[in-house]
# Entry
Amino acid sequence: MTQLAARPLPAEIRAAQDDIEARARSYGLDFFPTIFEVVDYEEMSMLAAFGGFPVRYPHWRFGAEYDELTKGYAYGLQKIYEMVINTDPCYAYLLAANALGDQKLVIAHVYGHCDFFKNNAWFAPTNRRMLDEMANHAARVNRYCDRFGSDAVELFIDACLSLEDLIDPHAPHIKRLPTPEDERASKKSKDEESKYDLKFPSKGYMDSFINPPEVIERQSRERQQKQQEKEDNRSFPEEPMRDVLLFLLEHAPLKDWQRDILAIVRDEAYYFAPQGQTKIMNEGWASYWHSTIMTRHGLTDAEVVDYADHHSGTMATSANRLNPYKLGIELFRDIEERWNKGQFGAEYEECDDLAAKEKWDKGLGLGREKIFDVRRIHNDVTFIDSFLTPEFCIKHKFFSFAYNDQSNYYEIVSRDFPQIKQQLLNSLTNHGRPFMYVVDGNYRNRGELFLKHKYQGVELKLDYARDTLANLQRLWLRPVHVETIVDDKPTIISFDGSQHEIKQK
Amino acid sequence: MARSIDRDLGRFKQILRGKVRENLRKYITHGEMIGRTGRELVSIPVPAIDIPHFRHGQKGSGGVAQGEGDVGQPIGKGQGQDGDGQGQAGDQPGSHIREVEISFEELADMLGEALELPRIEPKGKDSLESRKDRYTSIRQTGPDSLRHFKRTFKRALKRQVTLDNYNYENPVVIPMREDERFRSWKTVTEPESNAAVIYIMDVSGSMTDDQKEIVRMESFWIDTWLKRQYDGVQRRYIVHDAAAHEVDEDTFYRTRESGGTRISSAYQVAWQIITRDFPPSDWNIYCFQFSDGDNWGEDNESCLKTLTANLLPCSNLFCYGQVESPYGSGDYIRELRKVVDKFDNLILSEIEGKEAIYDSIKEFLGTGK
# Structure
């Protein structure tokens, strides 16, 4: 395996980069040093298949992705313009065959992403040395392949990847489990508590009256009994746990190398999670900046038509798919305009005069500042929740659609603001994927694993659920179960290592 | 440059091929599963191979999009009962079928492996030679279309450097007449073993479309196998009812006639083709006959006569596949059974339905002839 050959950047691209970098800084964008490399389409596809990294652990799914990308390009169906990864320094790749105008657009776009990576709170816990980390992962997995055979390793990775999204994307930001120190502290106080609180304070000669020994004894017996009961009923894990992978790491009967591979898959899943959580904002922010920089400074006369063509191609909307670039850039622009004109706050909200609202302009000029704040603290869900307005939905012709299982068509359901917003938030929450929790790691007291699907109106895709369950069983070894809703009825799907069982609860 | 993706890509292709191999029986018995067939490659749709995750189904799913339209207006078709959900905003399109492109050679190898077919020992290897032109050499004259640009350029450069005509500042290289070099060919003769395959099908009223479909699928696999074994395979097609005609491939599978059945007429035509086009000393001749076995009773005798006297002695194999038909009596195979012991190159097989194609191919080609 060889690394990509390091090639010096062509002089004109270098010049464009310097120019755009200075422009970006002058607008207040703040990014890690950014290294551009020019690659051909095959290399670009390879990098894209690897999630932006030059080296990943060996697995066929990268090959499948690559196959699809190169074929898509060969048949003229798709083209990747750029690729940038969240590391320090940031690496970004430019497609060699692009014209200079396109390269400029991409460079400006990339600086937008870099700024977002560095400043958005959701990216704060990610490892900025991921390039090295990925290479380490690859080296470790390669070593396991040599020692235990590629087939065994591949089979195991398949099973892990099947579960890779069963993580808790908020975990890096919230402390969910008590650390050992917390536990020690709380235990100490509990011990002291139990000794004293049974007795009322009393003088020595009154003690047997105020605290009759038999009562004390009875009380302490009762307390012990309660404690015992609590121990008996204690569930494992104590609270439903969203980080299924962590639970498996800690409790599944894995060999050392298997545990290490599972940890690798989990690490990488956590690394990529913020990109899923901020797709609309990230692309919107980058598009906002490429559009700002290009239209005000970057373009030469000759490049205007190509730029307009490519920009509008990226922003194209379609009736059955939401374009995150379009939604993101328009929402950022909308926020900028509203804060420039002062269209926010109680006074504006409570104004009933539509004409006055439309003309509302206090000339505050806070827009730029506001969008920088927004890009720092929000993710897609909070972004939409805070800033989507009815006026915006009408202006951009949003509607919500749903699947009609009678006609087997997706149909427009509503153009009402609350419904659109609700639907949009639903599909963004957890990336539109089902919430799964570990509820019991010792189900029926037989060491079986019990997961629960938090039903939110959409049922699981059954064939996938069955296959995923089989993969889960390969890690847990004992039978595994998942509780969900099938055809509107609570159902438990089980897999015991040889066959599936589906029964209504 | 070896890239790290090559390993993953190679492994992925291997997995796809493995899928084809695993399901070969299904592909053999369900002809419609074979996709486009090109000259050298056949593309086979393989159900998408992906990693399962817990995902939302289609039922109850929905999303948000932009555009015109009234409430209730359909915007896109769902994907049937087990289709992918489109619940995610801006997510990828649903899963799709991947096509694996496999060369006929590889397909034939898979077939051979699955059916445990022996390799064919061709006859006439030395007696038949073919001439081929190969562009392997260089000469000083020739047409412009064959000019070897790189060599010409190099010679011009060499000349200019030696004559000190070459200017590094302005590196212009002008080839002259004597610098020019042209590609040239050599004619080589190669021994070749060729096979002629003659397909005979009964198109009398009693053969239905289902039976023809069986014949079409079986002959596809026979072709694939024989092409792998021989350098050149020529195919001829004969249809017959009471009279026989030589037809092209397309007509062969489409003709539907009515009327009686006189198999001997087809044998006559086959014998004519062989004597005219394929001298048995140079050619490996294969005859595959498909019928529902409902022959005109008095014709049987003359059939056997042509078969034993002419066709069987000159053929590597003569295979008779009797397709079960709701109308046919199926008598003909009994007639052939009378002589089957005397000729080890006569193979008889009864094909009850699509599922039997697999075993029938094995019977036909399992002899290694």
Q: What stands out?
A: Chain A touches chain B through 85 residues (CB under 8 Å). The mean pLDDT of chain A is 88. Residues 434-504 of chain A form one domain. Residues 146 and 385 of chain A are 50 Å apart (CA to CA).
